[in-house]
Amino acid sequence: MMTMKDVAEKAGVSISTVSLVLNNHDAGRVKPQIAAKVRQMAEELGYKPNPMARSLRTSRTGILGFVSEQIQGIPYTSKALQGAQDATSRYGYIILLVDTDGSARQVEQTSTLQRYGVDGFLYSKPSSQVTEVPEELVHSPLVLISTNTVDNRFPIVEPNEFAIGYDATKRLIDSGAKKIAYIGNAKPTITQATRLEGYRRAFKEAGRTFDDRLVVNVGNNDPALEMVSRLFDEQHPDAFFCYDDSRTWYVYECAARRGLTIGKDLSVIGVGNLDFIVDTFTPKLTTIAIPEYEMGYWAACKLISLIEKRSLGPHPFPDELSNLPAIDAASPAKVHCRLIENESVISK
Amino acid sequence: MMTMKDVAEKAGVSISTVSLVLNNHDAGRVKPQIAAKVRQMAEELGYKPNPMARSLRTSRTGILGFVSEQIQGIPYTSKALQGAQDATSRYGYIILLVDTDGSARQVEQTSTLQRYGVDGFLYSKPSSQVTEVPEELVHSPLVLISTNTVDNRFPIVEPNEFAIGYDATKRLIDSGAKKIAYIGNAKPTITQATRLEGYRRAFKEAGRTFDDRLVVNVGNNDPALEMVSRLFDEQHPDAFFCYDDSRTWYVYECAARRGLTIGKDLSVIGVGNLDFIVDTFTPKLTTIAIPEYEMGYWAACKLISLIEKRSLGPHPFPDELSNLPAIDAASPAKVHCRLIENESVISK
DNA sequence: CTGAAAGCGCTAACAT
DNA sequence: ATGTTAGCGCTTTCAG
User: Fold this and answer.
1) From A139, B35, B253, B268, which residue has the greatest number of CB atoms within 10 Å?
2) A208 to chain B, minimum CA–CA distance in Å?
3) Which domain of life is it from (chains A, B) (predicted)?
């Protein structure tokens, strides 16, 4: 590994000059020719700064801590992590990972991150429950991913559940469906309530009346399949909006048993990834995936803008994400996630 | 953050003494009482070493680089990452993440990791293809996860596909199934071949003759559902072993259309996570998940043992994993992954 | 047995 | 405009 010393010797200047130049602090301080030479030498030698040494002086590391609390075994956060990773590497940061089970070890692990001098935290918890932000995190810049918190102290990137419900329903309406059922979650989560709101709004805007016989909320221990079966037989819906992969599955199963073909006899839009997991789906099912990747990406951008105390500009996203809003704007409905700014109050 | 200086002052000794003691180099060098006092003070002050500063001297960081190449959007590695993370934090290491698309940026990102002074790499690529190990990685301790490589220079932790095929088939045989079909992959991957071997071996050991009419290999673009349908109607199998979630789905669909109930009329064991995704499965489906978590955990243990040049002992696993083999032993069939030692040849 | 001192690679205030 | 210098927190050799 080349050091500044090597560059300095090769360029025939002192280490401090090199430092000045390579950190772009040379404006009006170092003679342009010298600066150019230094830069060239650095390039030639393939010099890369040693982040450890740098952080020892500056206490800025270019490291972001990604803390995720996983529900046992469910790799919920993985796509958000990937998004965060992409954004992060784009801006020259890197991610230190802590995956915790929320136990006492979390504190320990988080403080480990702190010792490594992370510049800020991303905190992700796959829960629709309202939770508290771990105390250890609130002393650094922090952006939450998809976590409902009791206080509104930190920016949050979260799914736009209303938009999901609205969008799915509207698409079914636009496709010509007459009787659109909603297979929801019996547990009264915020997600459930908000999606249903979106569903109702789409109905309302289309001039249709809401019919609660078309809404079946099933739990995880209910005889769910039977409940959906009954809906089929009593209401004969021609379209379904499903809360998640499980619910989509029930509809699928019921349809198959009745010789009905999805995409022909029935339209189904489910939240989840079932069509992805079962990648050669015949017939066609439409799913709306929670935009985890985008949330991770966005959250990381927000965190970096917080750390560097500057706006990242209107287009911090790679091409595929270009339909995402600018980092500081409200999210349009067509993207199913949004940023809640919450002024970040860092208690030191 | 407390520093050694603080501890030294508080204990009334010099910094070097503190260093000696806290690194356990005090045997016969520091008076036991003094050592005790130092330790106590460190404890009281909550002193934690600064890894950055330490690595500046020792060039050991306690950081492991996790490099994963993702197929676009498939968060395949996430569980392996979680396993690695668990093992890693157990031994006081921490994971720096690089998630790459295999492009030119990979080199850049990997060298970023190198600058952060990672002690070693975990490399994971979700592919049954034979690939080369990225050149940038071979200069550090390296353990591969689930990656078939052209050369055998590095230790690999990989799924034991034979055991999966054998185990699934044997379980179906033991459950009393008469006609066990295999829905495989038309693409002739190593995975496919090895699983089929396991299937055949189980047949052989049970004294049954292999009947290739019961094997249907479907591709991703085939009229897969039709092919499985035909198998149903021509052979009337009473059990299925399925290559992955897609194939399991086909069986499920065909069964539903015929009014057959899995778990009653049919036994199905599929490789994958379908029963997990559709978490309230009715009726019961059995899946064998690729032990990604375990592979990650194991690989990290192996890597650490490589870095520290010591055996981690026979029980490096948490309780839930205690049925996994010792880090240096061959894997028994009951765990569906194995370690291939491959002497690690680090070219400096 | 303990402390002083050098130095890892880098930054930045201070001299020149 | 450039160089000198003093550390950041830690390890380790070498004197005492």
Assistant:
1) B268
2) 32
3) Bacteria
Percent of residues, chain A, with pLDDT higher than 70 = 83
CA–CA dist B304, B318 (Å, integer): 16
How long is chain B? 348
Location of each CATH 3.40.50.2300 domain in chain B: 58-158+292-335, 161-289
> CA B136, CA A203: separation in Å to the nearest integer?
56
pTM over 0.90: no
Query: What pLDDT does B77 receive?
Result: 64
The answer, yes or no, to whether residue A230 has pLDDT greater than 90, is yes
- The residues, any chain, with a CB within 8 Å of residue B314's CB and separated by 6 or more, are B326, B327, B329
Name the residue facing B115 among A51, A96, A97 (closest C-beta): A51
B273-288 pLDDT per residue, tens: 776 665 555 455 677 7
The nearest alpha carbon in chain B to A76 belongs to B78
Amino acid occupying residue A91? Y
How do residues A169-198 score in pLDDT, each as one tens digit? 998 998 889 999 999 999 888 899 999 999
- C-beta of residue A30 within 8 angstroms of C-beta of residue A20: yes
**3-state SS class at B156:** strand
Strand C, nucleotides < 7 Å from a protein CB: these are: 1-5, 7-13
CA-only gyration radius of chain B, Å: 26
A100-127 confidence digits (pLDDT tens):
766 667 777 788 888 898 999 999 887 6
**Tokens representing residue B279 in the block:** 């978490």
The correct CATH number of A161-289 out of 3.40.50.150, 3.20.20.70, 3.40.50.2300, 2.30.30.100 is: 3.40.50.2300
Using the C1' atom of nucleotide C11, identify the protein residue whose alpha carbon is closest. Answer: A57
Q: CB within 8 A of B25, min separation 6: which ones?
A: B19
Q: Spell out the residues 6+ positions from residue A107 whose beta carbon is closer than 8 angstroms to its own.
A: A134, A136
Q: What kind of architecture, by CATH, is found in domain B58-158+292-335? A: 3-Layer(aba) Sandwich (3.40)
